[in-house]
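Renewal narrative, Specific Aim 1. Our central claim is that a sequence can be written position by position from structural information alone. The example that follows is taken directly from our test logs and has not been curated for this report. It begins with the C-alpha coordinates describing the chain, in the order in which they were read.
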Protein backbone atom coordinates (compact mmCIF):
# COMPACT_ATOMS: atom_id res chain seq x y z
CA UNK A 1 0.00 0.00 0.00
CA UNK A 2 1.38 3.40 -0.98
CA UNK A 3 0.91 5.91 1.83
CA UNK A 4 3.01 9.05 1.20
CA UNK A 5 4.36 10.99 4.15
CA UNK A 6 2.08 13.96 3.55
CA UNK A 7 -0.98 11.68 3.51
CA UNK A 8 0.12 10.00 6.75
CA UNK A 9 0.70 13.39 8.32
CA UNK A 10 -2.79 14.53 7.34
CA UNK A 11 -4.40 11.31 8.55
CA UNK A 12 -2.70 11.51 11.96
CA UNK A 13 -3.45 15.16 12.71
CA UNK A 14 -6.97 15.25 11.27
CA UNK A 15 -8.30 11.75 11.95
CA UNK A 16 -6.37 9.15 13.95
CA UNK A 17 -4.88 11.42 16.61
CA UNK A 18 -8.07 13.30 17.48
CA UNK A 19 -10.10 10.05 17.43
CA UNK A 20 -7.78 8.35 19.95
CA UNK A 21 -7.77 11.46 22.10
CA UNK A 22 -11.55 11.75 22.08
CA UNK A 23 -11.95 8.07 22.98
CA UNK A 24 -9.43 8.53 25.82
CA UNK A 25 -7.33 5.62 24.52
CA UNK A 26 -3.67 5.28 25.49
CA UNK A 27 -2.63 3.58 22.24
CA UNK A 28 0.63 4.96 20.83
CA UNK A 29 1.06 6.05 17.23
CA UNK A 30 4.27 4.88 15.56
CA UNK A 31 4.88 6.38 12.15
CA UNK A 32 6.55 5.09 8.98
CA UNK A 33 7.16 1.34 9.77
CA UNK A 34 9.62 0.82 6.94
CA UNK A 35 13.33 0.59 6.17
CA UNK A 36 16.28 2.74 7.22
CA UNK A 37 16.86 3.95 3.66
CA UNK A 38 14.07 6.56 3.70
CA UNK A 39 14.62 8.71 6.82
CA UNK A 40 13.03 11.66 5.08
CA UNK A 41 9.61 10.09 5.55
CA UNK A 42 9.49 10.24 9.39
CA UNK A 43 11.26 13.59 9.34
CA UNK A 44 8.51 15.00 7.15
CA UNK A 45 5.76 13.69 9.45
CA UNK A 46 7.48 14.92 12.61
CA UNK A 47 8.13 18.35 11.11
CA UNK A 48 4.39 19.06 11.26
CA UNK A 49 3.63 20.26 14.83
CA UNK A 50 -0.05 19.32 14.59
CA UNK A 51 0.81 15.71 13.71
CA UNK A 52 3.89 15.48 15.93
CA UNK A 53 1.89 16.00 19.12
CA UNK A 54 0.11 12.68 18.53
CA UNK A 55 3.21 10.69 17.52
CA UNK A 56 5.01 8.53 20.11
CA UNK A 57 7.88 7.54 17.84
CA UNK A 58 9.09 5.89 14.65
CA UNK A 59 8.93 2.21 13.67
CA UNK A 60 11.69 0.79 11.48
CA UNK A 61 12.44 -2.31 9.39
CA UNK A 62 15.93 -3.58 8.66
CA UNK A 63 15.96 -4.61 5.01
CA UNK A 64 17.67 -1.56 3.50
CA UNK A 65 19.73 1.38 4.72
CA UNK A 66 21.81 1.80 7.84
CA UNK A 67 20.63 1.81 11.49
CA UNK A 68 22.63 4.98 12.19
CA UNK A 69 19.77 7.00 10.67
CA UNK A 70 17.81 6.26 13.86
CA UNK A 71 20.35 8.26 15.82
CA UNK A 72 19.96 11.18 13.40
CA UNK A 73 16.19 11.14 13.91
CA UNK A 74 16.69 10.93 17.69
CA UNK A 75 19.04 13.90 17.68
CA UNK A 76 16.46 15.97 15.82
CA UNK A 77 13.46 14.79 17.88
CA UNK A 78 14.88 13.40 21.15
CA UNK A 79 11.47 13.12 22.82
CA UNK A 80 10.26 10.62 20.22
CA UNK A 81 10.95 6.93 20.74
CA UNK A 82 12.57 4.51 18.29
CA UNK A 83 11.50 0.91 17.66
CA UNK A 84 12.66 -1.80 15.25
CA UNK A 85 9.35 -3.55 14.61
CA UNK A 86 10.31 -6.17 12.03
CA UNK A 87 13.40 -7.98 10.81
CA UNK A 88 13.90 -11.45 9.39
CA UNK A 89 17.57 -12.32 9.80
CA UNK A 90 19.70 -15.44 9.97
CA UNK A 91 21.41 -17.74 7.49
CA UNK A 92 18.40 -17.81 5.17
CA UNK A 93 16.84 -14.53 6.29
CA UNK A 94 16.07 -11.69 3.92
CA UNK A 95 17.90 -8.99 5.91
CA UNK A 96 21.56 -8.12 5.22
CA UNK A 97 22.37 -8.42 8.96
CA UNK A 98 22.67 -11.34 11.35
CA UNK A 99 20.41 -11.24 14.39
CA UNK A 100 23.21 -10.23 16.76
CA UNK A 101 24.34 -7.43 14.42
CA UNK A 102 20.76 -6.19 14.26
CA UNK A 103 20.37 -6.29 18.05
CA UNK A 104 23.64 -4.52 18.82
CA UNK A 105 23.42 -1.89 16.09
CA UNK A 106 19.76 -1.12 16.73
CA UNK A 107 20.17 -0.64 20.48
CA UNK A 108 23.34 1.38 19.89
CA UNK A 109 21.18 3.69 17.79
CA UNK A 110 18.38 4.33 20.32
CA UNK A 111 15.99 1.47 19.53
CA UNK A 112 13.84 0.69 22.59
CA UNK A 113 12.87 -2.71 21.19
CA UNK A 114 13.89 -5.08 18.40
CA UNK A 115 11.42 -7.60 16.95
CA UNK A 116 12.70 -10.67 15.10
CA UNK A 117 10.12 -11.94 12.65
CA UNK A 118 8.69 -14.62 12.88
CA UNK A 119 8.52 -16.41 16.21
CA UNK A 120 7.86 -19.85 14.72
CA UNK A 121 7.71 -21.25 11.17
CA UNK A 122 7.44 -24.73 9.73
CA UNK A 123 10.15 -26.46 7.70
CA UNK A 124 8.89 -24.76 4.52
CA UNK A 125 8.91 -21.28 6.03
CA UNK A 126 5.12 -21.28 6.45
CA UNK A 127 2.27 -21.14 6.96
CA UNK A 128 1.87 -18.60 4.18
CA UNK A 129 -0.86 -16.68 2.44
CA UNK A 130 -0.14 -17.12 -1.26
CA UNK A 131 3.56 -16.95 -2.05
CA UNK A 132 4.25 -15.35 1.30
CA UNK A 133 7.79 -14.52 2.36
CA UNK A 134 10.54 -16.42 0.59
CA UNK A 135 13.49 -16.84 2.95
CA UNK A 136 11.96 -15.58 6.20
CA UNK A 137 13.42 -17.16 9.32
CA UNK A 138 11.76 -17.89 12.64
CA UNK A 139 13.20 -18.30 16.11
CA UNK A 140 11.81 -21.83 16.18
CA UNK A 141 11.31 -24.31 13.31
CA UNK A 142 8.44 -26.78 13.75
CA UNK A 143 8.02 -29.99 11.77
CA UNK A 144 4.24 -30.20 11.46
CA UNK A 145 4.39 -33.87 10.44
CA UNK A 146 6.19 -35.03 13.58
CA UNK A 147 5.61 -32.19 16.05
CA UNK A 148 9.36 -31.92 16.60
CA UNK A 149 10.94 -28.48 16.85
CA UNK A 150 14.40 -26.97 16.73
CA UNK A 151 15.88 -23.60 17.60
CA UNK A 152 17.47 -21.48 14.88
CA UNK A 153 20.62 -19.42 15.37
CA UNK A 154 18.39 -16.35 15.78
CA UNK A 155 16.99 -17.88 18.97
CA UNK A 156 20.44 -18.06 20.52
CA UNK A 157 21.53 -14.64 19.25
CA UNK A 158 18.43 -13.07 20.78
CA UNK A 159 18.98 -14.88 24.08
CA UNK A 160 22.31 -13.10 24.56
CA UNK A 161 20.26 -9.97 25.22
CA UNK A 162 16.74 -11.05 26.13
CA UNK A 163 17.84 -13.44 28.90
CA UNK A 164 19.95 -10.83 30.69
CA UNK A 165 18.58 -7.41 29.71
CA UNK A 166 15.25 -7.12 31.51
CA UNK A 167 12.29 -4.76 30.97
CA UNK A 168 13.10 -1.32 32.32
CA UNK A 169 16.80 -1.55 31.48
CA UNK A 170 18.71 1.35 29.97
CA UNK A 171 21.52 1.23 27.46
CA UNK A 172 24.58 2.84 29.04
CA UNK A 173 27.73 4.37 27.60
CA UNK A 174 30.31 1.99 26.18
CA UNK A 175 33.13 2.39 23.71
CA UNK A 176 35.59 0.29 21.72
CA UNK A 177 39.14 1.62 21.72
CA UNK A 178 40.44 0.99 18.22
CA UNK A 179 43.85 -0.38 17.31
CA UNK A 180 45.77 1.99 15.06
CA UNK A 181 48.00 -0.47 13.18
CA UNK A 182 47.56 -2.41 10.99
CA UNK A 183 43.79 -2.86 11.36
CA UNK A 184 40.93 -1.53 13.42
CA UNK A 185 38.96 -3.56 15.93
CA UNK A 186 36.16 -5.57 14.32
CA UNK A 187 34.40 -6.08 17.65
CA UNK A 188 30.84 -4.87 18.17
CA UNK A 189 29.47 -4.32 21.66
CA UNK A 190 26.64 -2.80 23.65
CA UNK A 191 26.11 -2.31 27.39
CA UNK A 192 23.00 -2.05 29.58
CA UNK A 193 22.01 -1.35 33.16
CA UNK A 194 19.07 -3.27 34.63
CA UNK A 195 16.65 -1.77 37.17
CA UNK A 196 18.39 -3.71 39.98
CA UNK A 197 21.71 -2.04 39.16
CA UNK A 198 23.27 -5.04 37.46
CA UNK A 199 25.10 -4.36 34.21
CA UNK A 200 25.35 -6.40 31.03
CA UNK A 201 27.87 -6.23 28.20
CA UNK A 202 27.36 -8.15 24.95
CA UNK A 203 30.34 -8.52 22.57
CA UNK A 204 30.31 -9.95 19.04
CA UNK A 205 33.30 -10.81 16.87
CA UNK A 206 32.25 -10.65 13.18
CA UNK A 207 35.73 -11.35 11.83
CA UNK A 208 37.15 -14.61 10.48
CA UNK A 209 39.76 -14.82 13.25
CA UNK A 210 39.77 -14.99 17.04
CA UNK A 211 40.32 -11.74 18.91
CA UNK A 212 41.53 -10.94 22.39
CA UNK A 213 40.10 -7.91 24.13
CA UNK A 214 39.99 -6.31 27.54
CA UNK A 215 36.86 -5.01 29.23
CA UNK A 216 37.61 -2.16 31.61
CA UNK A 217 35.30 -0.26 33.94
CA UNK A 218 35.78 2.45 36.54
CA UNK A 219 39.37 2.89 35.22
CA UNK A 220 40.60 0.45 37.86
CA UNK A 221 39.09 -2.97 37.02
CA UNK A 222 39.54 -5.03 33.89
CA UNK A 223 39.91 -8.52 32.51
CA UNK A 224 41.00 -10.14 29.24
CA UNK A 225 38.93 -12.43 27.09
CA UNK A 226 39.45 -14.20 23.73
CA UNK A 227 36.40 -14.50 21.49
CA UNK A 228 36.44 -16.92 18.53
CA UNK A 229 35.43 -16.00 15.00
CA UNK A 230 31.69 -15.20 14.78
CA UNK A 231 31.51 -15.70 18.55
CA UNK A 232 29.15 -13.90 20.92
CA UNK A 233 29.61 -13.52 24.66
CA UNK A 234 27.50 -11.92 27.38
CA UNK A 235 29.01 -10.66 30.64
CA UNK A 236 26.87 -9.69 33.61
CA UNK A 237 27.87 -7.84 36.76
CA UNK A 238 25.41 -8.80 39.49
CA UNK A 239 26.58 -6.13 41.91
CA UNK A 240 26.43 -2.39 41.40
CA UNK A 241 29.42 -0.73 39.83
CA UNK A 242 30.61 2.71 40.81
CA UNK A 243 30.88 3.71 37.14
CA UNK A 244 28.52 2.99 34.28
CA UNK A 245 30.92 3.67 31.41
CA UNK A 246 32.47 0.46 30.11
CA UNK A 247 35.33 0.43 27.60
CA UNK A 248 36.23 -2.55 25.41
CA UNK A 249 39.95 -2.40 24.67
CA UNK A 250 40.86 -4.44 21.63
CA UNK A 251 44.18 -6.23 21.94
CA UNK A 252 44.49 -7.84 18.50
CA UNK A 253 44.15 -11.19 16.80
CA UNK A 254 44.74 -14.58 18.36
CA UNK A 255 48.04 -16.43 18.44
CA UNK A 256 47.14 -18.01 15.10
CA UNK A 257 46.99 -14.68 13.28
CA UNK A 258 49.31 -13.58 10.52
CA UNK A 259 50.19 -10.57 12.61
CA UNK A 260 51.75 -12.71 15.33
CA UNK A 261 53.74 -14.54 12.68
CA UNK A 262 54.89 -11.17 11.41
CA UNK A 263 56.00 -10.42 14.96
CA UNK A 264 58.13 -13.55 14.96
CA UNK A 265 59.62 -12.51 11.65
CA UNK A 266 60.60 -9.09 12.92
CA UNK A 267 62.00 -10.60 16.10
CA UNK A 268 64.98 -11.59 13.99
CA UNK A 269 65.78 -7.90 13.91
CA UNK A 270 65.85 -7.49 17.68
CA UNK A 271 64.14 -4.45 19.10
CA UNK A 272 62.48 -3.60 15.78
CA UNK A 273 59.95 -6.34 16.46
CA UNK A 274 58.53 -4.46 19.43
CA UNK A 275 57.29 -1.74 17.09
CA UNK A 276 54.97 -4.13 15.28
CA UNK A 277 53.86 -6.77 17.78
CA UNK A 278 50.36 -6.65 19.25
CA UNK A 279 50.38 -7.70 22.89
CA UNK A 280 48.63 -11.00 23.65
CA UNK A 281 49.11 -11.08 27.42
CA UNK A 282 46.37 -12.90 29.33
CA UNK A 283 45.91 -13.96 32.91
CA UNK A 284 43.85 -17.15 32.70
CA UNK A 285 43.46 -17.30 36.46
CA UNK A 286 41.16 -14.31 36.21
CA UNK A 287 39.06 -16.00 33.56
CA UNK A 288 38.62 -19.36 35.31
CA UNK A 289 36.58 -18.14 38.26
CA UNK A 290 33.02 -17.77 36.92
CA UNK A 291 31.64 -18.40 33.53
CA UNK A 292 30.11 -20.84 31.13
CA UNK A 293 30.66 -20.43 27.43
CA UNK A 294 27.49 -19.43 25.61
CA UNK A 295 27.83 -20.61 22.02
CA UNK A 296 25.18 -20.68 19.35
CA UNK A 297 24.01 -24.22 20.01
CA UNK A 298 24.57 -24.49 23.73
CA UNK A 299 22.40 -23.36 26.65
CA UNK A 300 22.82 -19.63 26.95
CA UNK A 301 24.34 -18.46 30.21
CA UNK A 302 26.14 -15.25 31.01
CA UNK A 303 29.81 -15.26 31.77
CA UNK A 304 30.39 -13.31 34.94
CA UNK A 305 33.41 -11.02 35.11
CA UNK A 306 36.08 -12.03 37.61
CA UNK A 307 35.94 -10.68 41.13
CA UNK A 308 38.50 -8.25 42.49
CA UNK A 309 39.51 -7.58 46.04
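The sequence written for that structure reads:
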Amino acid sequence: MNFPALDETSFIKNNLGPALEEANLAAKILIYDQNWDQPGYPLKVLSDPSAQRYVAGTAWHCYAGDPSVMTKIHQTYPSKDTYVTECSTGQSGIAPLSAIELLIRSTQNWAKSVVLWNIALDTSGGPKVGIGCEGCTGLVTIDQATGQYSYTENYYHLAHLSKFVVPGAYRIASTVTRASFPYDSPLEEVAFQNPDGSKVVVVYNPSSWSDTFKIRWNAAHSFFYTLPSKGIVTFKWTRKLSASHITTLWEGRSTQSWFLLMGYFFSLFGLVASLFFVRQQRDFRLLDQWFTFCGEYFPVQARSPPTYR
